[in-house]
Amino acid sequence: SRTAVVIPAAGRGVRLGPGAPKALRTLSGTPMLVHAVRAMERARAVSLVVVVAPSDGAKEVRNLLDEHSLSDVVVVPGGETRQDSVRLGLAVLPDDIGTVLVHDAARPLVPVDTVDAVAAAVRDGAPAVVPALPVSDTVKEVEPRGNGAPEPVTGTPDRSRLRAVQTPQGFAREVLAEAHERVAREGEGATDDAGMVERTGVQVVVVPGHEEAFKVTRPLDLVLAEAVLARRRA
Ligand code: C5P
């Protein structure tokens, strides 16, 4: 069976500051989404890419991809939450897709070796695979206050057991579809796809991620991303 990638790209990118939807902002002159699609298409295993566009911006995304000679990419309009957007992307996959990778448009510089390693681990039999790195900061759990007030600390997890997870996350198709159906039914949230799969009782495994698979979230991340691109071109 074949492998498809779903790229949720419907987020507004509020934390980056005012401007276009995050996926359409440029890095060294090229939209982040175009970098992300190319990163997926470079992977040997990937035979189909589905982009989930902002619900009011599907036509703009279609035109943008066509302009960059990416007419083979399927575009569908997204939803309110990342979860909704991924579910809408899964809904258009052809029957012969057995492995699904889900990749954030906001991680435009993930190296092809990371993509291939995730896809290979799924094809080798793991139902759910997540690339991740050890965390460098000590992480505290707090009682959130959310208004800038001091927040009481409730715990400090053992750092050596923590991993910061990235994308693409890879899944046996039916495992991911079942997790999304369940979440839609029960109305629970999760910040990543593997988190949803964990709740269905399926074992998720972590493989090594890559520094360059970082998520472009804040203005400083744009500076870093452009520096990485400049180094690659040098
Ligand atoms: O908000 P966060 O950084 O977790 O977003 C991760 C990815 O999910 C981004 O690529 C963003 O465009 C996408 N997203 C989406 N639909 C939403 C919200 C986020 O496709 N409603």
Automatic annotation (TrEMBL):
The keyword Transmembrane helix does not apply. It catalyses: 2-C-methyl-D-erythritol 4-phosphate + CTP + H(+) = 4-CDP-2-C-methyl-D-erythritol + diphosphate. The record marks R159, K215 as: Positions MEP for the nucleophilic attack. Keywords: Isoprene biosynthesis, Nucleotidyltransferase, Transferase. This is 2-C-methyl-D-erythritol 4-phosphate cytidylyltransferase. Pfam families: IspD. Catalyzes the formation of 4-diphosphocytidyl-2-C-methyl-D-erythritol from CTP and 2-C-methyl-D-erythritol 4-phosphate (MEP).
